[in-house]
Queue: 2 jobs
Job 1
Amino acid sequence: MSSHRVTLDINGEPHSLDVTATQTLLDALRWQLDLTGTKKCCAEGECGACTVLLDGLAVNSCLVLATELHGASVTTIEGIGTPSSLSRLQDAFLAEGAVQCGFCIPGMVMAAHALLADQPHPDAATIRDRLSGNLCRCAGYPRILRAVQLASSQADE
Amino acid sequence: MNSEIVGASVRRVGGQERVTGRYRFVGDLRLEGMLHVKLVGLDCAHARVDAVQADAARSLPGVHAVVTENDLPRPMPRFGPVHHDRPILTTGYTTYHGEPVAAVVAETEELAAHAAQLVRVDYTELPSVTTVAAALDPTSPLVQDPDRRSGALAFTNVLSESRFGWGDEPGAAELVVDEAYVFPMVTHFAIEPHTFLAAPDHDGVQVWSAVQHPFALQQVLAELLGLPLAKVRVHAPDPGGAFGGKQHAKFEPLLALIAQRLSRPVRLELSLEETFQAVRRTMFEIRLRSGFFRDGRFAFQDAECNALLGAYADIGPRVVSKSTYLMCGPYRVPSARIHVRALLSHTPPATAFRGFGTPQVVWALESQLDEAARRLGIDRLEIRLRNLAGPGEEFMRGGKPADGDWGISLRRAAEEVRWSEPLPSGRGRGVAVGIKASATTGASYAIVRLHVDGSATVLSGTSDMGQGARTVLAQIAGQELGVDVLRVRVVMGDTALVPFDLQTSASRSTVFMGSAVRAACQDIHRQLVEMAAATFQLSADQVSVTGGLVQLPSRKLSFAELLAEAFAGVGGEVIGIGSRRGEHVGTHPLGGPPAFYEFSATACEVAVDDETGELTILKHISVADVGRAINPAQVESQDEGAAIMGLGHTLMEHLLFDKRGAVRNLGALDYRIPTTKDLPLALQSLLTENGDGPGPYGAKGAGEGGLFAVAPAVASAVAEATGAVVRDLPLTPERIWRALQDTKDPSDA
Ligand code: FES
Ligand code: FES
């Protein structure tokens, strides 16, 4: 399988990757860069576990081909906060008890992060709508929605 | 005692790693030099495998092996928690859609997948059994080879059959309701698909699997590989959701054998589609014939329960026997006859799934009570209150008496939806309860290490799959040792490090492992008393431990202060050991009485659009009798999650099969689960805390209950709103609409 070299920005750092024609951004992140915070579940754009920011927009990285990313800027969950320095949104997830098994959570955080960057004060219906592509089988949804609301209200302060 | 740790909603232990993507789930682990495995299956359920042609795949550079039954021991070793019926790799036939016939091992995942497509399997498709009716039909093909079964049922698809009951022959009843209820197959759909790794380890093997029962897996591997337990090391990273689907061994034995054979670490990640094919919920058809007196009390119950298992037993027979044990629910039923069959079929193995058969049984029982209430003209809440066992009452003949005041939870649920207030047309309310016999036998051991600075490490074999066991165990240790939760480490998921725990299931961990951790802390207390007495030349009765402090006649010391004094110049730590066992009782139908009952009440209010059958849940109340909540927010979030998951099987989920026995709706596109758009407009979980559980501080288990009674409560509300009674799940708009058409008087049209 022939490979192509792409140069892109990941979490603010330039990277050059050799990727195959069919390789997804998700697999490149997980296997070439060991950025395993981005999760794989359905691999067909239906669950949101693999959500990352591509040039600021939330996308399902399982649907994005790595070869198309020359010059792009990607932000993954690893670029949002660290365990000892959480983002306001990540802290809100814990404050609201929104995390159960946590497998969907990186994708949820990324989707919510993109929403708040786009609309700092979304109403409840907008939050529900914008997170509807992210599945949580533990179904912590009510608390996840509250966490986004909490983070958005704190954005005032 | 420093009472604010137990009962406080402290933040989830492990939360920071999860919100930052730093927690390494099993699929995130990378082993040096590992190879990748891809399984090869067929697109039908039942087939005779005539030949596996793998030369093309084998000749690809980077492909290390294509493993078929010919590469594995003969006779093929088999395993399973109830029957040893599941082969490491199938021999000669496939018996369910996706059952692998070969495993390709290659340098990369991509290459393994590509090579798997080059493996040609010649096969002859055979008729398959995918329904209860077909499984009971004596002319159907047999799912399992009769030579591997024993007894009178070997030549049928009935895996097990039992009859039990109590009381006299039923006398005169005012009303007899006789209906059949169907609860279809649904799939766990944990967002984390199954991933397994195995590696040779000197004279043993190491396996990584997000398994709920690491010690059960260790046992299976030791038996199959002929290794001592000590040489089989199972690493069980916290599962990314499990819900019962990650209890028992699946492809770990195959991977361990491949790793041994190739002397390389190997990894297998199932796709979501393959995960669907690995295990699913037990499907039930229950015909209930219940007699009622005029006042709504049960006169008798006759139940005919047919549970459709898959091609291998897995834990299915236990799901069936344990759930139907409470076929009469929490009610007083003077006379009962219960006939139960567990059936084999050409479908993916049926296993445990949150509730362990209880939602299936509750669907039938609670729906039937509603039908009786309607026909007798009795309020649906009232008929339940009239039949519900009171505290201490032996409701199940010869069984454990009621261990809670369940009427409290039922009334609370009803009050929260304003049960007795009038509703506009097109709206309805429902209320239902469910009860599960919890964990019975089994041992849990814990080790707690109190370090010299007063911090502590808890070693526990429980799996934290999202229910929050790490947090609860840290809180118990923190409470007992007077140390902040942030200064407690909970080590789990490695059979080489942590002591034995039978399993993580049946909402048992808080009660069993929680008690073991508490006992280990009390063991530490005893040692501290001796240590203080020796250090300060006192007699033991002059020293006591309370509230995380050592009380001497003259002063109080923190544990750290005592240890600094006692260990000066030498160092050391205090190691406490604790256990909790549920003993086997041969005469009990479940092998032992349940440690507690998990009781839950659900009430809801719905609106139905009678043009489309579309349903809106306006309000959903879930009340859980938890004895005592160690971490209330965590218990509530479990209960809410269970309620929403229950809405999945109530409203939208079911696996569909085609004529060839293939699953038609594999994957997230075709199989829908609840999203943020499917939530009730208001959802609330309430806890009943009477401190009447057998666990630490009066706790009972929790986390499954919110699921038990969702379907009958919603169906009951739909019936009130529209008059339409649906007895088959899920309650899709189409089904509701059809039922609505049936209720409409044709002369109105
Ligand atoms: S893994 Fe990408 S959307 Fe599911
Ligand atoms: S927290 Fe488990 S899937 Fe969302």
Note: The first helix of chain B runs from residue 15 to 19.
Job 2
Amino acid sequence: MPMKTRQGAALERKKFFADPAMVTTIALLAVLLALFILYPLAMLLMDSVHVQETETILLETVLSGDADIKYETDESGRKSVRVLDSKNKENLIALDDLTGAYGSLFVKNGRAIRDGDTIDPAKTYIKFDKNYWTLDAFPRIFKDYTFNNAFFNTLKLGMITSFGAVIVGLLFAYVDCYVSVKSRIIKKMFDVVSTLPVVSPPFVLSLSMILLFGRGGLITRKLLGIYDSDVYGLSGIAIVQILTFFPVCYMMLKGLLKNIDPSMEEASRDMGASRWKVFTTVTLPLMLPGLGNAFLVTFIESVADFANPMMIGGSYDTLATTIYLRITGGSYDTTGAAAMAVVLLSITLVLFLIQKYYLEAKTAATLTGKASRARVAITDNSVRIPLTTICSVISAFVILMYIAIPFGALFKLWGRDYSLSLKWFEQLFRDDGFKAFKDSFILSIIAAPITALLSMIISYLVVKKKFHGRGAIEFISMLAMAVPGTVLGVGFIRGFARGVFRTGLLQGIYGSGLILVIVFVIRSLPVGTRSGISALRQIDKSIEESAYDLGAGSTKVFTSVTLPLIKDSFLSGLVTTFVRSITAISAIILLVTPRYLLITCRINEFAEKGAYGVACAYATILIAIVYAAILLMNLCIKYMGTSRRTKVKEID
Amino acid sequence: MISKQKKGVRLDQISKIYIDPKTNKKFYAVNNVSLTIEPGSFVTLLGPSGCGKTTTLRMIAGFESPDEGEIYLGDQPINALMPNKRDTAMVFQSYALFPHYNVYDNVAYGLKLRKVPKDEMNLRIKRILDLVELSGMESRMTNQLSGGQQQRVALARAMVVEPSVLLFDEPLSNLDAKLRVSMRTEIRRIQQTLGITAVYVTHDQAEAMAISDKIIVMNKGVIAQMGTPREIYHHPVSEFVADFIGEVNFLTGNIVKTDGSKCTLKIAEHEVIVDNPDSFPVGKECKVVLRPEAAILADAGALPCKVVLSCFMGAYQNYHVMVGNTLVKLADYCPVGRKTYEVGDTAFLSFREGCVHML
Ligand SMILES: Nc1ncnc2c1ncn2[C@@H]1O[C@H](COP(=O)(O)OP(=O)(O)OP(=O)(O)O)[C@@H](O)[C@H]1O
Ligand SMILES: [Mg+2]
């Protein structure tokens, strides 16, 4: 019996198009995502396989018939080239006639440099515009020393950092979930440490690393008396990156460990396995996909990181910094930078795909459901004391690094004069510090609601609506997570510097504040969308259906039912975007023009110059702003969020 | 309260095809269903899990689109209408109350969308909350209500917009047994008060019997039988329907003689005379549909049997007897004054007049 589903599909389509608000939203969204995510990346890709350059060829060579241009034959069978006359009219002219007298000679796609009554083939050059596709750029950059060096540096750094971050994260997660930690202070410290690096500006740790361990470092020089300590380079970046990224691993792995049913491990203990044996034979194998997941997430972050290698890398160049230097360093080698950006993008993209489509599914498959009972915490001192000590030391270290920043701003001259003064802050405001804060603040505050709303709309469409291209919209908005900021920055330069497809369309946004806001939005969209999607998945679909059923259109349903129900997610999207934007550097440092001063770029500049006092002053105020924002969000969620409902007292 | 014209619902050869996510094969979740629901009547879709009840209901509401056929609300074809443009209101199994609104705002939601003037809105909400006995709870949040109260808010919210058709998808399945019984009576009372057309989905046959004007028994996407509760119980058209509604025994026999409206049936080597309303011919093998209360045990009769279980249940005496090789379960209501048979006794089955149905 043939089954026809055509009517059903047609009706669905009819109903879909009877909802103009939604159709418009989806169309608009598709255009935005295509224009600001896909298009810049596509331009990068195109740049790396497409040659568009001008070559100057000696007329003699053209005449010899061996030049790398297109030869044709005219009606009498003579070898010819296409020539434009001064009126831009095309003529097919035989080679024999080329040297004849032409007042002004134009060859198609080219132009005679010297013209005159007669042309001397040995002295005349013709410029040809070359315009063709090739894969040559890749072998070429792989022969390039700078690139090669950066490439392997990046991978090496990624490996070291991800290993380190996963191990430290696992340690913290294990202690958190398995070991009985009695001290309140230590517990509090873990909490602080796990959230600090996640929300702080990316280069804060680098800055304090230099302050504490650099040549004039407080610890190295003052305490240990080492005068030639060198934090710049691989070890410096690796330490800073590990400390920056391990909290994410910690949170991911903690989630996993919480879901392991303790009775599984107890069964193994019961059969005589030691604690170490239980860990290696039960816990670890169960976590393997999750560990892989954490590893890849860190790897992507590390490879994409721009700020830390920039600040503390010294001569250790990574792809991100090399690309940046290629573009800003005077050579303006945008094609080379584009090819490198494509390589960097390929690395992160492949890892992202593995992580998202293979490991995430596997993690979910091996660990389903909740643990049935609470775990009996380990009180055995031979396990407890060493593990707790290691974690405490790491925590104390991270906290120390944060404390160093405000002091860096308050000490008169770090390394020499440790007396307190406000002179760096004064200098900051005497300088154009105020404008930097204003610009950063305004741009970020504009980006925040746009991103929050956009990501809620995307989540709503992805979770609750059926339409073609839904998967594509989800994928593209998540894709931005895998695109390193530097790559996005280069993409925007290639894509918009001369307008869309080099037509001048939208060229106005290039160099404007708008493009910065757009970059902020794109960079935060995946985070907001992810949180929106998981919030929406928990809402029974019949709640929205009943609103439809009572006569609400999709816009009304979204504003009156969906959005209020995911208010928490919206609020956190708002603040996350604000925080991420005001601390962002990698993409915007390539796009910012002198019209706008951004805090992060200022910090970078001052740190480059060695003016750590001012850099610290900026960073201190930035941290304060970020924390104020997060505090405000928590207050809002507490008093206005969706959880409030349950707290209302019984009325009767 | 209902001022506008009542509307019925008509499904004309409706089919819905889904793709089984496991095998990736298409199958009919609803297959060629045609039915007419009279204005103002209460119709129940009854059937085992997965038979397509919810799918049918959701097609009427507009959440799913039929792959074949046309749905009419009154005389108007509504296939291409979006759910929010259909004059239906649904009561969901999970109630689907808006958790960020209080009772009043939940009920007011549909009225606000219809731009009902403030005064009229207040009046209608007050009246409907009186009807569902929730007056005074207007400002409660929905999580401060009991299951039954939430259910009534859902009911009020759907009814206050005065839809042409009310749709219910197992609205009582989250309630405990006792509340279920009182709520179903309530739903029926309110529906009759307002005279709204109602389509009700359940897989609880007792519930269906208790509230419906008409029951539609579904099985594997098709309609197995349509009729009043009485017809379905006493005259099931198939073993499936007979078995699904209430307790039933089947006895197989051959017609050996017909005589007007009666016929002689040979069951397990014994001949019995029964009604033959369908005029089955001689030689036909028949299934006798025997409800537990449709026969009693006696000391004499045509069909001998052996008692294998005898058990006092209060309201009735429960017997299991063997007729030939077939086990028959009987319920003898009001056994007072009649002989009680014990295990091992031989007795005779005596069919009650007009209670035996043949397939
Ligand atoms: N969206 C869907 N995609 C694929 N199959 C579906 C979908 N929705 C329902 N089905 C299938 O269609 C069939 C009918 O489903 P339906 O929900 O109508 O059953 P039901 O009669 O309401 O059952 P229950 O009493 O369990 O609620 C089932 O086999 C179900 O698995
Ligand atoms: Mg159902």
Note: Residues 177-194 of chain B form the longest helix (18 residues).
